[in-house]
Write a structure and sequence with these properties.
Blueprint: H1 2-39, E1 42-46, E2 53-57, H2 63-78, H3 85-95, H4 98-118, E3 121-132, E4 137-147, E5 152-167, E6 170-179, H5 194-198
Antiparallel strand pairs: 1-2, 3-4, 4-5, 5-6
Helix pairs in contact: 3-4
Length: about 200
């Protein structure tokens, strides 16, 4: 009788152990599945100047996302007039890192006074964009026209380098600088223009 009780107890312990191992295996599988889902989850990134949401997967920034952000940033920086200064200030604060915004704000005080005195406006017509997602770097090339109320004062081909920085779920502008011809990283990958070939 005692032997039967011992055998029955051993079977019960065995069943409990099997059940416990099954629950642990199921829990481990669920945790592993959740970890994989989190790693490959898509992240929603908000572009301050766009009305739609864009998603990024993994840790990288896509070429299309960076190009659209650079186009919007270039528009804000280079299409300006005395009447749009308030709009410019608000947008620049949203697009840039806090350090960059302070630098820009300081540098633009003198320019703003000059622009208000001359009543000059500027318009930028982009021709090409070079994007390096790995470096979070974009080059925009085009024609910049400066004009007063009646005529174009100056028209010149210009290139600008934009460097971005990832801060959490935001990609913000760290620098926006004019480039000389020998500083253009994208010059080697862009097709040669007819004017370049004649030089």
């Amino acid at each position: 009788m005692k032997m039967d009780n011992v055998m029955k107890g051993a079977r019960d312990v065995g069943r409990r152990n099997t059940l416990l191992i099954g629950i642990l295996a199921l829990s481990a599988a669920a945790n592993l599945g959740q970890a994989v889902a989190l790693v490959s989850a898509r992240q929603t990134i908000l572009v301050p100047t766009l009305t739609e949401e864009l998603t990024l997967s993994g840790g990288g920034v896509s070429r299309d996302y960076l190009e659209r952000l650079a186009r919007d940033t270039t528009f804000v920086f280079l299409n300006r007039s005395p009447q749009t200064e308030e709009f410019f200030d608000k947008q620049v604060e949203r697009l840039t890192t806090p350090e960059t915004y302070r630098e820009i704000k300081t540098a633009l005080i003198a320019e703003r006074l000059q622009r208000q005195e001359s009543r000059a406006s500027q318009v930028f017509y982009p021709n090409s964009i070079y994007v390096s997602p790995k470096e979070l770097y974009v080059e925009v090339n085009g024609r910049l026209e400066t004009m007063n109320t009646r005529e174009i004062i100056k028209s010149e081909d210009k290139s600008y380098g934009l460097t971005f920085e990832r801060q959490g779920s935001l990609v913000l502008l760290r620098s926006f600088v004019p480039l000389a011809k020998n500083e253009e990283k994208g010059a080697n990958v862009r097709p040669k223009q007819e004017s370049d070939l004649q030089q």
